[in-house]
């Protein structure tokens, strides 16, 4: 290993050990690891061609990968080797691994789920490709100026991305605009603009490096060469215009995670990567198969939300226009290959493109969408329409063009059947199924929590990493004092590490014995960070009213970005920082209550915060959080959840036991019912003196003395438009927080409850989720499993 690293330093970076920077060492180590992975990767690719199994294609606009170096090291089982080599080379392991920028090619839950799924597909030995966009700039970098969010372009690619291989041979022409000509019943699309899609492959090797899949990300490049004439004429801008235009398509990730932008560039991004991916997988299929009608037997395409839903019309276009399959055969043929996952019920997140824009950017596809609509309407006359009020509804298109639609938690799937797709569900009663989300235990326990990982492995061996349900064996340890002590020590070690990091980076001193209460996720009104903050101010008031009472010290940790155009969310961020400033400088509560909000929350920060958490905030308005996955990560790392009966919280509580979960709030049914009551928020406020007092303080500028009216809007909204029922759930939330305070005062019992959480989270492994997709949707098999069975 040592020699390999020095060779890479020399021959790939042109550096010797004396002059190498941390960056050089990191790239050298990464390239050596990549060499290791290539063996497995090639072997897997070879075996796949030989076995010609069904392949899975996961199409996603987002892959929220984070850092890869530690994940690669642990999956290849090379920690000790790498650590020893780096030490012998006189370098510091942590300095090198922490130098890697996050690959932040996603907004939040949907993007991170795609990354966890890629790890599970490889670990399970299921042949798969992830297809997405190689954004030059991922999710913006967040900083705070006077407590307000400021966005800066993210720059991960200004450095060499060590893990990828450019694939110039996998290059496709992607057309936009233009017009369609029809001759003798055949359609010919003549695009007005063409860009090139070039593939960049990152090998994805699973646990123990037994199988390797590919994450293929597309970047946009100009189709035609540099315009030398314009240049020679001195019109330099014109010379670079087509290049700049082309590159724009893969330039930046849209930072919205709940509101569709409706922007032309976004539609072009969606079609760009979807079309390149379909061309690529069909080229691969036709290399070994000549009957396009057998495609559904060898290809399963999963649409990660509606963002790649244009795949339906695009596949039909290819079948009809390039393979002369009749339209009424092409539509069902395409449907058999496609499946769609819905991740949200929020109306503003359901994509709808104007027919006008679709007709201008993708004229042939609009024709095909009309044909799809006609075929479906003919068969089901009272079916909801794809084309409505001049819009193309991508949810309806995805539903009608796929053979399976799944929700991401049991509650969410029921709500999908009862609300957004109620009418289509009546027509296709077996199409909607559930696949409750999961998380990869490799990153979210083995990788991010070494002290707990070692304790578990020392207790039950290491097979849990690829068979997480084995954690249930730990339940028997809840009355084992020595084990509980070690379990508690692990949590405290993580809290001390976090306290050191917070004091280094934010200059705030935390008491590691206080309860670490953490809410980290995108800022959104339905996730109710505001309710958390209102409870914090109410607690502060009580502490100041009664400073000598026996308070449970509490540290409130917030993390999360707001979409740049989401002003209410930005106001909430500002209020959290304004309140933190006042409370953190209050001598009365100095040793009882602190609020910290580290800027630029991302995957790497989640890996730092989650192992140190005692309490996990999953407090969304019931019926709004499709699943949540942070909730699973916290419980797996021994945090107790305070939460509503929303998304996967319901199933987490079923698995850990209601006695090990702090439940509060209205149910989804009750939320819908309460909304019918006029003035429900004013009534709730009038019924809660505690809430009234807090809202009064905020409205009068207690936390913004130089701008007292700063939060009039926010408080006014709670009085009159409290759409997410913060006011109605406040008191039960406050009381439940006090129950948590009391419980925390009994450390042994708290640790026992936390242990039961960890031990009960096996089912929430993304390995279980992927097995569900493979069984119920894709009909895909594990090649490694098949090999094992054959050799047995
Ligand atoms: C068009 C703009 C846009 C972009 C992203 C709209 C919606 C999205 C995503 C669907 C939002 C998202 O990340 N949803 C989250 O998906 C997770 C994975 O299934 C769930 O666990 C979360 O509950 C859900 O909010």
Automatic annotation (TrEMBL):
Show the GO MF annotations. Answer: glycogen phosphorylase activity; pyridoxal phosphate binding
Positions carrying N6-(pyridoxal phosphate)lysine? 633
Query: One Pfam family from the UniProt entry?
Result: Phosphorylase
Give the GO biological process terms: glycogen catabolic process
Could you say which EC number(s) this protein's record lists?
Answer: 2.4.1.1
Look up keyword Glycosyltransferase and say if it applies: yes
Cofactor(s) listed in the protein's UniProt record: pyridoxal 5'-phosphate
| Location of this chain's protein in the cell | Cytoplasm
Q: Which reaction does it catalyse?
A: [(1->4)-alpha-D-glucosyl](n) + phosphate = [(1->4)-alpha-D-glucosyl](n-1) + alpha-D-glucose 1-phosphate
Could you tell me the superkingdom of the organism this chain comes from?
Bacteria
GO cellular component annotations, sorted alphabetically?
cytoplasm
Keyword annotations for this protein, in alphabetical order, are:
Allosteric enzyme, Carbohydrate metabolism, Cytoplasm, Glycosyltransferase, Pyridoxal phosphate, Transferase
Any keyword Oxidoreductase?
no
If you read the UniProt record, what top EC class would you report for this enzyme, in one word?
transferase
Q: Which InterPro entries match?
A: Glycg_phsphrylas, Glyco_trans_35, Pyridoxal_P_attach_site
So what family is this one in? Belongs to the glycogen phosphorylase family.
NCBIfam families the UniProt entry points to: P_ylase (TIGR02093)
Q: What does this protein do?
A: Allosteric enzyme that catalyzes the rate-limiting step in glycogen catabolism, the phosphorolytic cleavage of glycogen to produce glucose-1-phosphate, and plays a central role in maintaining cellular and organismal glucose homeostasis. Phosphorylase is an important allosteric enzyme in carbohydrate metabolism. Enzymes from different sources differ in their regulatory mechanisms and in their natural substrates. However, all known phosphorylases share catalytic and structural properties.
Name under which the protein is recorded: Alpha-1,4 glucan phosphorylase
**Organism encoding this protein:** Marivita cryptomonadis
Upper lineage is:
Bacteria, Pseudomonadati, Pseudomonadota, Alphaproteobacteria, Rhodobacterales
